[in-house]
Structures are given as C-alpha cells and as structure tokens.
Amino acid sequence: DLNAISTYQTPVQNMVFATKANDIAIRQQGLYPAKWYRQGDFLMPGTDTTYAWQGYIDTSMQPVMHNPERGFVSSANQLPYNYKNYPYYMGGIHALERGYIVNEMLTNMHNITALDMQMMQTDNYDLHARWARPILLKYLAVNDLSADEKRLVQLLSDWNLRCDASEEGASVFASWWDSLNIVLHGDDLAQTNKPIQQVSRTTMLQNLMNDSTNYMFIDDITTTSKVETLQEQVMAAFKKSAPVLLEAAKKQALAWGKFKVNGVRHILKIPSFGRFNLNASGTWNAINAYKGYHGPSWRMIVHLTDETEAYGIYPAGQSGNPGSKYYDSFVNDWVAGKYYKLKILTK
Predict the structure, then answer these.
(1) What is the pTM of this model?
(2) Do the domain assignments include residue 65?
(3) pLDDT tens by residue, 128-153
(4) Residues 69 and 217 in one domain
C-alpha cells in the first residue's frame, strides 16, 4: 500500500515493495521543494523572495512505478524521471551507468535465482569504459609511443571491461581517463582560487561523445600561441599517466585490486579501526560500486518463495568492539562477494 509511506519526509529514499502475490512497486519518497529547472544549482539573490522555495511537491506527483509491463522495478540512484516532461526539478548528481546496466541485465535475465542476484550485485562490468575507451584509442597516435607505452595501450585494447581485482586494463583506463579530465579542464579550473568541483567523468564523456573535436575545453588556455587538438590532449594525458602505470607494473601492482585505493574506513577515520589495502574488485560506476572508501555497505537479497529465503552481508563484523576478533570478521567475505544466509523470523 503506497499510502503507508505517504507521510515519510526525509531523507528522500527509493522505497521498493514486493509481495509473494507478484505485486511490485518502487517510489522515490520524501519531502521535495517544488523547484524550477536548475533552481538552487547556482548562487541566487537572498534578498529576492521570488528565488525562495514556494512550496513542496505533492506526494501524488512523486515518481512511482507499480507492476510495470517489463516485469521489474529498479534503482541505482539514477535520475528517477524524464526531466523533459516532469514539471519539477530535483537537482543532484545522477550517474546513469549503473542504472543502465542494471536494467540491461534484468531485461535479459529469466527464471532468476538468489545466486543469479548475488552475481549481479557483485558484477564489475564498467559500462562507462565501454563508451569511453573508443575515444581514447581513436585519438591516440600509437606510432609515436615507446615499446613499453604500446604494451599499456594493448592492455587497454584487450581488456574485457570488467573491473575485477586481477585486471590490468582497468588500471590503464582509469589512470588515462582521469588524466584526460585534468588535461582538458585543469587549465580552466585553475583560473580561480576558490574551491571548485572537478568536471564529472560522465559530463566529460557525454560532451566528447556528442561533439568530440569541438568540445570547448580541448584547447589549453595557458598556451596562447597555439590551439590544441583532441589528438594532442589525449596524447598528453597518456604521457602523464604512463610513468605511473609503468612504475606500478614494475612493482607488480598494476592489477586493479592493487592499483586502486581500497579500504573500509571507520566513520571517525581512526586508522587502527579500519581495514586497508584490500585486494578488491569494483569501481564507482559498476554495479559493485566499490572504490576508495565507498561502496555497497549492505548487500541483501530476498527470494519470496513459499518459505522466504534471504541472504546478506556488510563489510564489518558481528561486534562493534574493536578489540573483538569479530569486529571485522565479515570484511574478507564481503570483498570476495560472499553472502550469509539470513534468518527470517515469522514472529
């Protein structure tokens, strides 16, 4: 009953509902200010009340999906509505890759089991790289590279687009793509001494896919005697990342699980209370969105068979006492993608 959550206000949540009678629904529930497009994204005059919130979105207008024809509901924090025909603006950052691959996989899965869902929740396929890799390879002058550098390019070309801990191609892609972001935007962002957010990977990808050679940030504004091309900037980005990658290879640390920063950090950031240098899979835009100190902290699967079947795991332990051997006893299994069977109480 969607009315049961209609009074819930904050924080906004994606609420999913399912029954053994094959009834499913999802609703993005919470108290939203009714904003016009891009309201609140930039500085506004505080003395002008016309820029203030004028009210809140009625619960009847909040995004909801109930028993869709496609047979499933899903959310991976992607944009919950089509901004072209939805009358309000919710703002925020909504990466599309994870939601896209979730829907793609569910559309092609049939007779799904709990094990299938475990494999899906821990899937490391990098959809962002599927779209971005052709840009890097297209505009790179391979013949101008050294033998060692060509081997790095070959690792990327042969990469299966999975960010598994053992994959070296994932390290090449991440380092090169992040380097390109800095090469393209660093000169412009450096024009201010105010704190400013780096252009998102998704924004950069969308612009390069739409009109790669005319993207307004390709030229380096600090070199006034010339106008850089995308070919030159892709090469410059590769040349910046190659020494880091080659040094990692020399140290046997080019595999993705060793190359990227992985850890489970205590909320107070006390090093002795955390676990670090984990040889883990995942990336920020895969379904297994684990990179750095952020990731899916609670994995759970509920199979609504006659006798409810459930599995779950979180990256900590059964005890909250740092002195207990059970304090971090789940971490290794969580990294390995394992699940524990959960006991569902009937009363």
Answers:
(1) 0.91
(2) yes
(3) 999 999 999 999 999 999 999 999 99
(4) no
